[in-house]
């Protein structure tokens, strides 16, 4: 027999607003706007064909019937949460990893199948962010950032070194030969918004400071810059760790002999008290081995 149920989003909005006594607080908890909470509550009231709140200027109060309804809804959500937690425990541990988007897309995700083959019971939940570690909510088991840096309460482990040097597609090299740094005058230089001085620093190190290219294109993420290089749009400053697979497969080439710019290593950051947890130690050992494979290739 089909159940007659209202929208789950509407029930969540009602339960949070009723429990917290505020639409604003409910919006904060649910990560939505106050207007969205109000709309969902209205939808639930329309579905029930009865009011849930008595509205008094800047505050709201539950109707007597809504208080009884809340007691039942709250129990239902508690049971769902408990069942979900139990299922997650039985299905295996969840490892929550936070990493920069470009690193995740270009290095970590292509290798995750290897980790899953080694440890099929560990489920990796990957979130991308460029926020500083100290600004992140304490919701992650492993955080990957540049370094090595020191943070109170965290252990830092470098696992992947990299440098940066000019890269482009073989097709671009055929159209516009690039043999010396001076030849960049005829090319489009690809910039990344978050690293605006990369090309200036490299050109200075190459002895052609102030060189004016034919064109310049700035993109807001490193992975977009690298994609533009792959598509033959221009020459990018490529981080060696993130382009190793493209170089090995001939999708990108390094047309100039040097120099290369040093860059910060990729490091794992884990709370001191959680160092011995098995899913974490297995993941750290795996990325360390993968990093060494890259370094020796």
From TrEMBL:
SUPFAM superfamilies: Periplasmic binding protein-like II, Winged helix' DNA-binding domain. Residues 6-63 form the HTH lysR-type domain. InterPro entries: LysR-type_TF_proteobact-type (IPR058163), LysR_HTH_N (IPR000847), LysR_subst-bd (IPR005119), WH-like_DNA-bd_sf (IPR036388), WH_DNA-bd_sf (IPR036390). Keywords: DNA-binding, Transcription, Transcription regulation. Gene3D superfamilies: Periplasmic binding protein-like II (3.40.190.10), Winged helix-like DNA-binding domain superfamily/Winged helix DNA-binding domain (1.10.10.10). The keyword Cell membrane does not apply. Belongs to the LysR transcriptional regulatory family. This is Transcriptional regulator GcvA. It comes from Ancylobacter koreensis.
């Amino acid at each position: 027999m089909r159940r007659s149920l209202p929208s789950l989003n509407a029930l969540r909005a009602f339960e949070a607003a009723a429990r917290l006594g505020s639409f604003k607080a409910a919006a904060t908890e649910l990560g939505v706007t106050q207007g969205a909470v109000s709309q969902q509550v209205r939808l639930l009231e329309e579905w029930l064909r009865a009011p849930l709140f008595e509205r008094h200027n800047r505050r709201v109060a539950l109707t007597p019937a809504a208080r009884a309804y809340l007691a039942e809804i709250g129990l239902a959500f508690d049971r769902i949460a408990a069942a979900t937690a139990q299922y997650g425990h039985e299905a295996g541990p969840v490892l929550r990893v936070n990493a920069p988007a470009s690193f995740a897309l270009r290095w970590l995700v292509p290798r995750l199948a290897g980790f899953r083959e080694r440890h099929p019971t560990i489920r990796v939940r990957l979130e991308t962010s460029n926020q500083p570690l100290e600004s992140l909510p304490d919701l992650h088991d492993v955080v990957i950032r540049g370094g090595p840096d020191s943070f109170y309460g965290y252990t830092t482990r470098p696992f992947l070194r990299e440098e940066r040097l000019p890269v482009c597609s073989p097709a671009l090299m055929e159209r516009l030969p690039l043999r010396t740094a001076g030849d960049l005058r005829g090319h489009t230089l690809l910039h990344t918004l978050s690293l605006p001085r990369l090309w200036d620093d490299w050109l200075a190190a190459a002895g052609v400071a102030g060189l004016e290219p034919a064109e310049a294109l700035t993109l807001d993420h490193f992975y977009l810059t690298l994609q533009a290089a792959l598509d033959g749009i221009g020459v990018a400053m490529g981080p060696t760790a993130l382009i190793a697979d493209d170089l090995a497969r001939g999708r990108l080439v390094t047309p100039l002999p040097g120099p290369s710019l040093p860059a910060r290593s990729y490091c794992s950051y884990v709370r001191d008290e959680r160092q011995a947890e098995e899913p974490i130690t297995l993941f750290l050992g795996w990325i360390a081995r993968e990093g060494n494979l890259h370094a020796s290739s």
